[in-house]
Amino acid sequence: MEVCYISFVPATDSRGILSATLKWLTLENHSLPGAIGMYGLSLGVSHIGKTLPLPVYALLSGLNAATVGIIALAAVQLAQKAITDKLTRALVFFGGTAGMLYTALWYFPILMVASGIMTVIWDFRYPHKLLAFVRPKRGRLARETNEAEDVELSQRVPNASNTSSQQQTEDSIQHRRTNTTNTEDAILPSTNPNAPTSPSSTSAPTHPAPTTSPLSIRLSLTLLILFLLTFLTLMLLRGFLHPHPILFSLFANLFLGGTIIFGGGPVVIPLLREYTVAPGFVSARDFLLGLAIIQAFPGPNFNFAVYLGSLTALNAQTPSISGAILGFLAIFLPGLVVQTGFMGIWPMVRKKRVTTSALRGVHAGAVGLVFTAVYRLWQIGFLEQGKEMGSPLGDKAWWVVVTATSFVGGRWFGVKAPVAILLGGVMGMLWFGVVRS
After folding, report:
1. With 60 as the cut, is the pLDDT of residue 142 above it?
2. Helix (H) / strand (E) containing 168
3. What percent of the chain has pLDDT over 70?
4. pTM of the predicted model, to two decimals?
5. 62, 425 in Cβ contact below 8 A?
6. What is residue 311's predicted lDDT score, i.e. its pLDDT?
7. First to last CA, the chain
8. What CA dihedral angle connects 228, 109, 215 and 223, to 10 degrees?
């Protein structure tokens, strides 16, 4: 969440919340222009029939393959920033693999929360303290054994030995005692909470917070409490109200996604797919088409919710603008409210070690979900007549080449995302011209 809203914080300090929000939406983040563009795209896509000409399938497959390469590159870049030690490396792996194995609306949030809890447990050295409690006798036993050996060794040395021989014996005893101490320290890590720790083990990628805030602590807490009550009300209605209107389900799903998204734009992709395609609000083909096009649009990937909301409304025989507005509000409102609410208390909260520790783990777990998105999009990227739901890009070697071209071009040759998307479409048409003509 923080990547999308970070420019909102300094703007709020200097211009006030309302003016900062308007400028953030229009100029600094290009959210509003991008949202308008995605709404127009949804109107065009809604007029496309269920069956497309064969060249269009090839074009869309090329766009999808290039998009997978771009998202894979984003996953690698985000992982490089999120990984600060072996634990966060393991959490990125955990989030990616666990997300591939199972799918549910509640599952992704649980994975991110679990990652945050793991870092707190590890950074506060709870496993080490447990180890020190379970294995203290081993250290004492080794120390007593070595002391007994030292006494026995000293008794074997003749009293009439020369000075150099005695000195060598004392040096040997001292050396062994030093080794014993070092071994014990390795077995029982320090449990001193004031002991210095390496920056990589406890620091989290945090953004500089302003020293002063236009909001008081009371107002900040009020905003956060109201947001929490709104969130709980929506989730309870979503769970117990059956049947509920499709636009309410859309708003609740996207509101949930906007609340739990953490780590930047690509993280939103697996969530949006799970919250719109799985319930049947939007077809897999239309989802992939919009995903490919949005990579060339200004603004964050959050604008994808406008496109999905509009198509959902059209499929429900309601005005498209209603779904677009609901999608925009549902995906952006949670982040704006939470960001604003935390401005009053963040200077105080950010100093807590548990906060930075938990955020470090949540960030790593969320980045792992981007790799999940790469896998899931790979599995449905190849479109052809009769298989509108998609099939794996690996079915044809050419689409693997397109994906690799997009990744390598962006990684080492500085190819921008819009250019990579366009190149993918061209390569898709080349494939059709050679193979299917």
Report:
1. no
2. helix 163-187
3. 73
4. 0.73
5. yes
6. 96
7. 46
8. -10
